[in-house]
Amino acid sequence: MVGTFIAGYGAEMLRRTLQHISMVGVALVLAASIGVSLGVVISGHERVARWVIGAASVLFTVPSLALFALLVVALAPIRQGTGRVPAITALTLYSVLPIVRNTWVALRQVDPSTVQAAQGMGMTPGQVMLHVKLPLVLPLIMAGVRNAAVMGVGMATIATLIGGGGLGYFIFEGIARANRSMVIAGTIAITLLGLAVNGGLLLAEEALMPERRGRGEHRR
Amino acid sequence: MIELDAVTKRYGDKTPVDHLSLRIPDNAITILIGPSGCGKTTTLKMINRLIEPTGGDIRIDGRSVYAMDPIELRRSIGYVIQEIGLFPHYTVEGNIGVVPGLLGWDRTRIRRRAEELLELVNLDPSTYLRRYPRELSGGERQRVGVARALAADPRVLLMDEPFGAIDPINRRSLQDFFLRLQSELKRTVVFVTHDISEAVKLGDRIAIMRDGRLVQVDATHALLEHPADAFVEDLLGAARSAEQLLLYRAANYVDTAFTVMTTEELHRSGVRAEAPLIILKDGAVVSGYVEKGQLVTCEDPQDAVCRFKTVSGNATLLETVATLLESGRKRAVVQSPDGTILGTLSVPMIAEIMAKVAR
Amino acid sequence: MNAFQYLSRNWPEVSAKIAQHLGMVGVAVVASLIVGLVLGIVVSRPRLQKVGRAIIGVTGIAQSIPSVAVIALMFVYTGIGPRTAVIALSIYGVVPILFNVSSALLLVPADILEAARGMGMTPLQVLIQIELPLASQSIMAGLRTAVTIDVSTATVASVVGAGGLGDIIFVGLSAVRPDMIIAGTLLVASIAILSDVVLAFLQKSVVSRGLSIPS
């Protein structure tokens, strides 16, 4: 049953999978840029940091459907109320928290003596951040990105409700049409996608890790 | 007294403890020592039944530990491990109060006991009662661990390398602290260590194990003088060197041939004894001695000639030698902290001990 | 009409939806907590440790399944209505709780457990006085996660006829009524934030001061 469904809708599923991936991908890139930059900026300032992380946490707590819907309303005046724009915006906003939090926590945990050694060698604070701190905390940041990615795949399921496309289509349409195979096919697809994203990013993390074993050297 | 009677532990084809028979006397520290894997920790844990033996019996004061409920047994024995295992979510008072709590003591009694114990281990109760383990230094944690083990006033203390995780400097002071404690409390202590210097420093008796069997067990100084075989010699190794020996406790090496008389008795009966005669004046104050028929007395206790040196039983032989040389006295009288006279030592005596024991 | 006007005019229906929403989440969370705690304890016992680690691995993977999918799958078997949502939420909520409970219990330092046993605590006493308190921080965190996910997922559950605040948002979206959308999202966001704050407060008061609490 599910098998025949997939056979019949194969092309459609592939198309929507690509939609799904691109939504999450764009959001992730945006969130990572914002998140890491924010994390770097607040890493020196304890009080500001707590505010920023607090705000991001609150955003994170808001139910995804609510955020999607709010963006629909907010972006309607500029004619971007439906489609990929509100979807990607919402996903980005959600993904910022895990990334910024991991970046900030990781930077705080950098061994001060390593930083002092770098400063002693004559590096500016900017160089210290770029060549010493960030490379050291990369694994933790990657973990945050991976976390956000997996969540994003799940959340993007809802994007279909506001016209964003993606694999959620099969789930909601399946429910509306009482078509079990559709629902199951959609669920399997999303789950597999989530697992694949998790696994793929894990491999990427590990590919980067062995380099980290030779610590104390600048990243090329 | 704790009796281990042919105690055996087998796991599959491994026998960590093989028909071990050992008597552990009351009110003294018995050390279990041996190379890694010799079964000393396993043996210790069989006493409070954290590990159940496959054969043999263990009796405390004649009662087999198998006749008792293991939970009750453990609540009556103090147990200190290397990492201490202080409960991080309880305050110091909470930690100390665990076994009393299990035994049903009320909170006031527990608090008073905790205060008492903290003072015993030299930690100010008003500061430390409310602290959490994460706020304590390593040495402080260790002392709280010992206090916790003593909370329900057990007669037996089982200790498994309790000072192993501490740095050498603090370890020394912890060992000294423990010796002072033991001289006050006089518990029956079974102490596992792999450090021979610690064993010789702390132990009244040492039991050497290897491959699950007992190789030699004897009083510390006897062991040092008469190792049973090359393995024991090897294990004692550095402990038998002259330098090491100087660190050991005066109390363990005293010459116990002496007589005690008060000054009144002396005036009445005159000098007769040949062995060193220790003269008491005003109760416990030692005010003169007799050696080989020659009496050195004085009426004036301030006279430096006759006052000779008293030394604490817990002082090291090194300290004893230093004291004697400094004061120019020929003999030191060794006293335990509560005033009991244990015996005498002289520099020639110490040199002889060193010669006998050193390789 | 703006959101507040909508709310004031339709308060009876809206409050009913709020009650439905809270009810779904409440029942599901309690069920997840009970199942998650019991399973987590069972699975972390010494003799079952290998099973325990396997289950932690599985729950780790299960976290990759989006919550919506669980609702959809449940719909396949039990059709529409709040019951579907509650069952799905209960099952889904077990995942973060079980994961946190079991990993935290497995992380209790062995020396502490040994000291506790050696002092004469029964296994039950060790569990209640030592293991659970030491794991409490993680357990509370798992609970918070479960609640947050449940509030969020319950919103989407309206597509399977479960009721709740999602209804307001969905109607607002299809009828293009910004006032309803805003009203619905504000309400649901407030509930989410409020419950998280309450739970955070609870977490602080439950966890002993002796355990350092990361911010």
Structure report:
The complex is a heterotrimer of chains A (220), B (359) and C (215). Chain A has 220 residues and is mainly α. Chain A has helices at residues 2-42, 46-61, 64-75, 84-108, 112-120, 125-159, 168-176, 180-213. Chain A has one domain (2-213): MetI-like fold, CATH 1.10.3720.10. Chain A is built from eight helices and no strands. Chain A is elongated. The relative contact order of chain A is 0.15. With 359 residues, chain B is of the alpha/beta class. Chain B has two domains: 2-240, 3-Layer(aba) Sandwich (Rossmann fold), CATH 3.40.50; 259-357, CBS-domain. In chain B, 35% of the residues lie in helices and 26% in strands. Chain B has helices at residues 40-47, 70-75, 92-96, 98-103, 107-120, 125-128, 138-150, 168-185, 196-202, 220-225, 230-236, 242-245, 263-269, 317-327, 347-357; strands at residues 2-11, 14-24, 29-33, 55-60, 63-64, 77-81, 156-160, 188-193, 205-210, 213-219, 259-262, 277-281, 285-291, 294-296, 309-312, 332-335, 341-345. Chain C has a single domain (3-206), classed as MetI-like fold (Orthogonal Bundle), CATH 1.10.3720.10. In chain C, 80% of the residues lie in helices and 0% in strands. Chain C contains nine helices and no strands. In chain C, helix 2 runs parallel beside helix 5, helix 5 (82-106) packs antiparallel against helix 7 (123-156) and helix 7 (123-156) packs antiparallel against helix 9. The radius of gyration of chain C is 20 Å and the shape is elongated. Chain A binds chain C through residues 50, 58, 60-67, 69-70, 72-73, 76, 150, 153-155, 157-158, 161-162, 168, 171-172, 174-176, 180, 183-184, 186-187, 190-191, 194-195, 198, and chain C through 61, 63-69, 72-73, 75-76, 148, 151-153, 155-156, 159-160, 166, 169-170, 172-173, 178, 181-182, 184-185, 188-189, 192-193, 196, 215.
Task: Provide a brief overview of the structure.
The complex is a heterotrimer of chains A (220), B (359) and C (215). In chain A, 82% of the residues lie in helices and 0% in strands. Chain A is mainly alpha-helical and 220 residues long.
